[in-house]
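Budget justification, computational time. The allocation requested in the original proposal was used primarily to generate structure tokens for proteins on the priority list. As evidence of use, we reproduce two of the resulting records. The first is shown immediately below.
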Amino acid sequence: MEVAGKQSGGEMGSAAAWWAERARKIGNAVAKEGREDPRKVVHSVKVGMAVTVASMVYLLEPLFHGMGRNNSIWAVLTVILVLEFTAGATLYKGINRGIGTLAALSFALLIEIVARHVGHIGCAISIGFSVFLTGAFMTYMRFIPAMKKHCDNGLIVFLLTFNLITVGSYHDDNVFHSAIQRNYTIAIGCGICIITSLLILPNWSGEDLHSSIISKFEDLAKVIQACVEEYFQVPDTKDASKSSKTTALEKSYEEIFQCNSTEESLATFASWEPRHSRYCYPWKQYVHLGTVLSRLAYTAFVLHGCLESHVQAPQTVRALFKEPCEHVAEEIVKVLSELAETIKKHHHFSAHISDHLHEALEELDASIKTQHQLFLPSNPTKTEAAKPSEILGSQIRGPEQLKIRNRTTSKTVITRLEFSEALPFSAFVSLLIETVAQLDLVIEEVEELAKVAHFKEFHEEDDSIENKVVPVKILRAAKISSY
């Protein structure tokens, strides 16, 4: 019995320890979320306050009896469904819900007037037919991209409210009186949401979109710098840290690409927000800039693919061009960081933002010209490399031909061909230059954003750039030659 008691005590102790560990992890996760974004704590308090105020409709006797037993709770439900983290999202859902409810009530009243003049059976047929047409039409409207983007919530509310009122009115003559009372409580709930969201420490979708674009710039700068640094690492140190750096890069790419869908939602909500500060947030221009940044991110992603390629350039070739390539990457990172800083501070960028990048590209061009022989086939006397079919054909005989061909990989064929040793490096450099070309478009979009958003002019010592700064075409100024 003592042994059994000890075993039972040990199991209870381990269970308690397990629950304590789980509680500690949950507590840490909750605290971490609040530290990373204190606005979430504020929003949670705001929702609690709004729900409490909306509950007064149900808890106070005069309001409860005036609105009706079944309708008073709709104020609380409206607050829970409408109040969102940002003011734009709250306005989007609140206005959609209000318009959808009023439109459904008006249309249901019209159907009711028509149905009452066609008899009891005719009324049922009319209601059924109107429900069918409304359900089909509203569902089809939700497939239209513009309606889906801006009015989806309103269409759902319209369909739900119309069916509840129209079908309910068949056996209840007081359904319209009840629906009007319900609209009062819904209006109270929407009003509480809008006041809470707009007037009490508001969170703006436009500002979140602004911060998301800045974060995208910073993440791209880190990714490009990490890609180039890893590409030129010597094999010994590269193998030791490859897995951790690859994981970090993949996480960065995931965050960048996740921003695309987030930015679309933020732009939609920002379009509903009023002007609330000295800076405007032209959401369309932010979306355009985000699209251009996404293209740059895809180029950087392909650049990262060079690190995982099966065919790699020799270290001797990489060492020859390490300094100019790293210099170009360093200047790309500087330009991205400076652009992020200009957007963060709401001012135009310097006209000399890409001067050093021009110099870095010219340095890379000069290095390639001095080592142009590396980009030729290793056996120049051989006029034509062996074709893959010829290589395979010389090794395949008899009925086993198909099986052997299926077992032969592309990598085996590639090693037989007379490609230049620097060919994989050529792909890497081409992508690096393509990154610079994409950066040209980014600079143009940032300047367009600065004009539309009325950013401050750039001031450097006694010089000032008034109205606008014309971005310089980086590749055109550097005059990079093809190899």
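The second record produced under the same allocation is shown here.
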Amino acid sequence: MSGESNGKLTESTAMLTPEIKFTKLFINGQFVDSISGKTFETIDPRTGDVITKVAEGNKEDIDLAVEAARDAFDNGPWPRLSGAQRRRILMKLADLIEENAEELAALDAIDGGRLFHDGKTIDIPGAAETIRYYAGVADKIHGETLKMSREFQAYTLREPIGVVGHIIPWNFPTQMFAMKVGPALAAGCTMIVKPAEQTPLSALYCAHLTKLAGIPDGAVNVVTGYGSVAGAAISSHMDIDKVSFTGSTEVGRLIMQAAAMSNLKQVSLELGGKSPIIIFDDAELDKAVDLALLGTLYNKGEICVAGSRVFVQEGIYVEFLKKLEEKVGSWVVGDPFDLDSKQGPQVEKKQFEKILSYIEHGKREGATLLAGGKRFGEMGYYVQPTIFADVKDDMIIAKEEIFGPVMSVLKFKTIGEVIRRANATKYGLAAGVITSNLDTANTVSRSIRAGVIWINCYFAFDQDSPYGGYKMSGFGRDLGIDGLDKYLHVKSVATPIYNTPWL
């Protein structure tokens, strides 16, 4: 086996830990202990050591947070401020997030294994820009004047949906906080945020920043705890009007069931993926290899749009594998605070072991192990970038979401064949198309059943571009104006008109 990854894990970088300032629940503008007094440990994936203990919220704590959010919505100032007033406060929140970029990036690095440099230069500035984007539309939420067919005049109002429960994942903690909280606040909603139990620290820090920005007490509440308890309490709560969830398809099913069995609250889900990257014979080879590596290995593969199924046309298949094997050898695995690192540790031991079990599946099923295939180092939850070639569509590694740095390379002949095979999945989140032929790009992008298609690029996210899935990758959209619309009701208002010269 060749293509072993470079990397380094040093005692000096592994011990870098920012001061932990916030570990309690944030309810009604105050940091408070959980009612039970229970706490849980949040773990540093670089070492497996405990970072700190965080308040463990349960159903009673969710009830308190919902009570605060409901009162803030029904009686408080936030939904009743003008859009311009909300805009000014959200702009202040964005500035505060940006001013505290280093601390937030460090929290996401020690809590979730996110690269500190990427967090500081991409994630946290991106979170601030997301808040600014929705601040910019807060005073532009308009209804329509309707042309009625009878003697009525009518118009629509777009009103905040009410109290929202946000259940956010662990792979991009600060970015996901902004993607959920930003549009909901711009719409005039109040909310409860339940961060992933693996990565609670940056959400609590952001809660502190909402207070500094001037967001009224009760409008934003953050309850840390386990998904099976606190998340379930949000999903089934009779006084929550909407749940927005990003995470696994399995948990998405449970949330829909709970919503249906309680008050039929609205639900939006951004779920799993097994996204294809389709590389045609006419692609620029070096660029194709770089995009395939990025698409699979970015954030150690812990990203729902990871392009982990790489379809390569037969004319360049052998050469592609050769270049891929060469380039993966320079992919540096190491401590997230090391500037040379391209890949940090997996978020937790459970996910680490799950990824290694999938790698063993690939070996047993007869795929060719081109690179990687085992843990990296002796400390923490690091996995070697792993590439399997000669993968078949019915192999487990080609069908199931691994959520780790594992690439499956598959060979194809024709455009019709690869469209059929790319669509032969229960997921439909994203896809990449790499070709120099515009007709091919257009045909494939319109044929793939997925919510996001990237042509000759990958991870081309932007605040203005809606993001979400087809099929079992969920429904509803984050980002863009679509990301705002899901937090708004549409109300029609009609009055009769008399003796008008026209309708």
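A brief technical remark on that second record: The first strand starts at residue 7 and ends at 8.
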